[in-house]
Design goal:
It comes from Irpex rosettiformis. This is Cytochrome P450. By secondary structure, the chain is of the alpha+beta class. The chain has one domain: Cytochrome p450 (Orthogonal Bundle). The chain contains 16 helices and ten strands. Strands 1-2-6-3 form a four-stranded mixed β-sheet. A two-stranded antiparallel ribbon has the order 4-5. Helix 9 runs antiparallel to helix 10. The chain binds protoporphyrin IX containing FE (HEM).
Amino acid sequence: RKQTRAPSLPSPPGDPILGHLRYMPDVNDRDTVFYDWGCKYGDVFQLNVLGKPIVVINSEKAAMELMEKRSAIYSDRPPMPLFERDGWKDGVVAAKYGPLLTRQRKMFHSPLAKGTMPEYEAVQEQEVNFLLQGLLDEPHECRRLFRLYTSSILTTLIYGHRIRSFDDAYYKIAEDFDLMHEAAHPSLLDISPYFEYLPSWFPGAWFIRHIKEMRPKLLYMMRMPLESVWLELSGKVVEPSYASRNLEALAKNGKISDRDWWIIEMTSNQLLTGGTDTSFQTLQWFIVCMLTNPDAQVKAQREIDDVVGRDRLPNFADQDSLPYVQCIMHEVMRWQPVVPVGIAHQSTAEDIYEGMRIPKGSVMIANPRGVTWDENLYHNPRQFKPERFLPKPDGAGENFPVHSIFGWGRRICPGRHLAEANIWLAIARILSVFTVTKAKDENGKPIEPVIKWGTGLVRHPEPFVFDMLPRDGNAPLLIRSANSQKGS
Ligand code: HEM
């Protein structure tokens, strides 16, 4: 009673019945528009779309209080009808908060725990050496090579399959996931499931075509790799992997039920799809940052030269001695969060925040921009300044906004340790042997890069021009020798 009498959160003006439907920003600008509205209406404000409350949080203090400390009531997901129709119903990303989510997340605990990471170093080193070789031979293929790098680490760990070419069926799977980016857009299905029966030519019914194309692809993506692992298990040589271990454990107890099979299929797929685009697009943003901040690149290369030298490549044992390289990775993530508005949570009980009411069933959006652009937390927040994370007096002693990048409470990204390890190794080794620089036109004049971002679930730069040159005559030899070592 007391709670329902509490005042509502501040809200921008909207329409009767429709609420803020007509004012909802485009997916591409949602983070920046929500940031601007936060400056105007307060760090926690409410929108309503056809009666559904949407709470936007624009400060670390409020997000910590609600999404972390009170995560027991903020860990559900709102309905994601397009994801579900595409074939991801009940998969961990879209799962409602409950036993099925708990079971799936439990399966990730041990394989993705921080302490398990050293077990993957050999795979990561082989993959990064293959990446360097690719960048040396075909630097213009950088985008596809980054995707191959992140997806191959994942397919090796999940299915025991290394990707060695762009024609590999597993690479195609990772590429086909591009179509899923459309599912980030609001659709009529958010209003009612019956709109699925509209003809595809009906204005606004683009999602009918999307489901028709995406659903079979997603089903194939989930089924094909697991069936291959199952077939391999009946043979003699099996590369141990997340899927093989889970299948073997279940098979020991007799027949694997359809439900158990589905859970392994789904969790494997969500690790691959959740981990590939986020990580490889972070690497693309790293290239953008090096291209546009040459001083930072030089500083990181000097650090690597001092600690590692030029006769070998950096490895995980060097990580603590390369603080500036670590700062570069974190600053790339802070400067351009690749999941621009995170993944929405939903509240399961009514709540009060600073005397104001948050209705039960509110969609909760913790906007990363509210934190990463907060001038109380970051000096010149819109500038790329890796040293901000160095301890004082060398740097500003600012904190990496881990939750704004990897999520909140009981839904925090389970793959964060693996993501950071994969990205760090790629960044450290690229900086040790290559320099990212402006491309030159036919007259030898540097071409100014134009950086724009494309639409999708994961923020990515549109193709841009740059060069990636070996740092010295020894770099190609070092790369070739590393990539030809046993196991590579
Ligand atoms: C730079 C890389 C990555 C970033 C920025 C990132 C970011 C995120 C974010 C923001 C969420 C939503 C968290 C929330 O709801 O509060 C998430 C969820 C998730 N991520 Fe990541 N992620 C990355 C890499 C990975 C990797 C490598 C994997 C797998 C190995 C992975 C698997 C997942 C899964 C399965 C979920 C769903 C968790 C749930 O709904 O409970 N991610 N990630």
